[in-house]
Design brief:
The structure holds two protein chains of two kinds. Helices cover about 30% and strands about 25% of the residues of chain A. The chains are: A alpha/beta, B alpha+beta.
């Protein structure tokens, strides 16, 4: 059941911990980090009736913090700032491609209902700047004064790390061969591509580093292969993996590759993408040039460009993925206990996944509530519970349940805790549980 | 008797029939006899140890599990509900004190049994997520509860036990009756969360109505089409 050693060895945690730092500014996003000055035009919001907590980002982390900070400390006046006017989850989007859930499952969740159910305000605006001295957040809809600010903007892509540095090719890849790990419109495009795939090679790339949702590219490859097999399509899936081994649940994925998809799915380890020619539909690796009919090209992942824009980047010694400069245990920007960064822009070697962000957010909500009352709470680990559906017909999954260890001497997260378990045996029970896992998360974010 | 006990619960507890020990601030509800689908009273001796039976109590939209712990006897302890304060879970009833009942709603993220599926089940023989035998396991996120310890959390992300249902057993007839529970605010949160689904399943407002007279108890495998054995 639990192959914890293998799990640790092959996981993104180990990969991230061992990766060398890089200089900042290689992403094409390193504009002057100076935050925009407050405009003086105040956002149309009711007067704060208690310490104002502004949460930026209506994903798993932000929605959970907005709800639970209010629950923990009802005096908080909470405002959730989100640039989208319609929610849709990244988690379980792979299942939609295989017809196992509908788009309604992902998107039938209202920011308005979440706010009303949990006694906060949803404010539909895009953040454009931050004046930390004046404790003012600048948005497209006006300035917002805060007492506490949480920024949970998720990830951005880093195409430079897969050898695609010219902006024309980057733009083509973003639009024609999206990774499918940031925005809903990417999911819709991928859904169409997979449904319309009639043959040839479908490439799914896997980046190096601590990318969002470690098992997801392998899960997606399995589900595409499952469709190919089910629909008797003359095609195959090729996984080009930058890593030397499947980064998580390796045994369970290999079993699916070998037992379910022989001749339909090819796995290529140590196959980092070094360049893409969209016109010729070829991907270059160190060893091969792979021709594809269609592809989901998952570039490397970095902290959201918003973190860089607001001048909150960690030094390269702390993050080689442009993540935020926050306290390891309490998530506040180093030297500033008013501003926090949570979710996938954190520099921690945690799994960048929904369940991790959700459980982390429960803890950060308690940190905020305590600090608003002049207290502190002790650190607790987030939890990573994650199902991966490896077969669509019938629906079968494998799973992992992980916690993390904090080393006070190093002030760092050093690995998975001994109680970490990997369930590599695929079965229908875990397949079904995947659906309820997601529904539970939606309930935890949107309902009272 | 402290003030909280006096004002909140003792009246109900003292009125409850068939209880030899006072059991903390469990709310008294109508006494509802558990019956078979044909209306015949369910006898404790007819309840096996391998599977929970599902019945509605105290409201029509609240599913509960009746469990026969077999040779294990249920113990009482002080527990904390998510929304309704502290309580002492009721004792097990029956000839060996092995019959217990719980509100079948996971206190983590509210998974509950529906006719389509149940992700919360009593895993008599043990399971992958639950570990040892005789635990209640939620497949969604791995919360595990011990029905012999008042439904207390064993492991997993839940912070609270399952809400208890107080039972009475009549030694003369071997019949089982539900007499009370904890969770008035918890039920309200559950209703808010699943209002659309509950209207679909029971009809507008019906899920909020109190169960009257008797409650049909059926095995979980008969109640839900799918019961994943996680």
């Amino acid at each position: 059941m639990s192959d914890r050693r293998g799990f640790l060895r092959n996981s993104g945690l180990a990969a991230a911990a061992g990766a060398a730092g890089v200089m900042l500014g290689g992403s094409g996003c390193a504009t002057a980090a100076g935050p925009a000055v407050a405009t003086g035009r105040m956002a149309a919001l009711p007067k704060a009736r208690g310490p104002r907590l502004v949460v930026v980002g209506g994903g798993t982390s932000g929605l959970t913090i907005a709800k639970y900070a209010k629950k923990e400390f009802p005096q908080f006046d909470v405002v959730l700032v989100e640039k989208r006017d319609m929610y849709s989850s990244c988690f379980t989007s792979n299942l939609w491609y295989a017809g196992l859930v509908t788009l309604e499952n992902l998107a039938n969740h209202s920011f308005l209902d979440a706010a009303v159910n949990n006694k906060y305000v949803y404010f539909n605006a895009t953040v454009t700047g931050l004046d930390r001295a004046g404790k003012t957040l600048v948005t497209s809809e006006g300035d917002i004064k805060y007492d506490y600010l949480v920024i949970a903007p998720g990830i951005s892509y880093d195409y430079g790390k897969i050898g695609v540095n010219d902006i024309d090719t980057q733009t083509t890849l973003r639009q024609v061969y999206p990774g499918g790990f940031v925005s809903t419109t990417e999911h819709v495009t991928l859904h169409r591509k997979i449904r319309e795939f009639e043959g040839g090679v479908f490439v799914q790339t896997v980046p190096s580093g601590n990318y969002r949702c470690l098992p997801a590219p392998y899960e997606r490859a399995c589900l595409i292969a499952s469709l190919i097999k089910h629909n008797k399509i003359k095609g195959k899936v090729v996984i080009l993996d930058a890593n030397p081994e499947v980064t998580i649940k390796a045994e369970g994925f290999h079993a699916a590759f070998d037992q379910l998809y022989k001749g339909i799915l090819e796995y290529h380890p140590n196959a980092a993408v070094k360049g893409v020619d969209p016109a010729k539909r070829t991907i270059e690796t160190d060893f091969d040039s792979v021709q594809f009919a269609d592809a989901a090209i998952y570039p490397n992942v970095r902290g959201s460009t918003l973190i860089e824009q607001l001048g909150l980047l960690a030094p390269a010694t702390k993050s080689n993925q442009f993540e935020a400069n926050i306290d390891t245990r309490f998530y506040n920007i180093v030297g500033d206990t008013s501003v926090y960064v949570t979710g996938d822009s954190r520099p921690h070697p945690y799994s960048k996944s929904a369940n991790t962000s959700n459980t982390e957010a429960h803890y950060v909500a308690r940190v905020l509530a305590a600090r608003a009352q002049g207290k502190e709470v002790s650190w607790t680990t987030p939890e990573t519970i994650c199902y991966s559906v490896v077969n669509a017909f019938p629906m079968e999954a494998i799973s992992v349940k992980a916690h993390y260890v904090y080393d006070a001497g190093k002030d760092a997260i050093t690995g998975f805790s001994p109680d970490t378990q990997v369930f590599n045996n695929r079965d229908a029970a875990k397949g079904k549980a995947t659906l309820e896992w997601a529904k539970g998360l939606y309930r935890d974010m949107f309902n009272a | 008797m402290d003030r909280r006990c006096f004002t909140q619960a003792c009246t109900g507890a003292l009125l409850a029939q068939g209880l030899s020990v006072w059991a903390g601030p469990v709310q008294d509800y109508a006494h509802i006899k558990l019956v078979h689908p044909d209306g015949a009273p369910l006898k404790a001796s007819e309840v096996g140890t391998q599977e929970a039976l599902v019945f509605a109590y105290p409201l029509k939209g609240i599913p509960c599990y009746l469990i026969n712990l077999g040779e294990r006897k249920a113990s009482t302890q002080s527990l904390q509900s998510p929304d309704d304060g502290d309580y002492t879970n009721p004792e097990g009833v029956g000839p060996k004190g092995s019959f217990v009942a719980f509100v079948a709603i996971c206190t983590h993220q509210l998974s509950y049994p529906t006719p389509a599926a149940s992700y919360l089940r009593y895993a008599a023989a043990g399971s992958e997520l639950g570990g040892g035998p005789g635990r209640i396991v939620c497949c969604a996120h791995g919360s595990v509860y011990d029905p012999a310890q008042g439904g207390a959390r064993v492991t997993g992300p839940t912070q609270n036990p399952l809400m208890p249902v107080r039972l009475a057993w009549d030694p003369a007839t071997d019949h089982l009756t539900a007499t009370g529970t904890v969770g008035r605010k918890f039920f309200e949160r559950f209703f808010q969360t699943f209002k659309g689904d509950l209207i679909e399943q029971y009809g507008p407002g019906v899920y909020r109505q109190e169960v009257e007279g008797s409650a049909v108890a059926v095995p979980l495998s008969a109640y839900s089409r799918e019961v994943p054995a996680c």
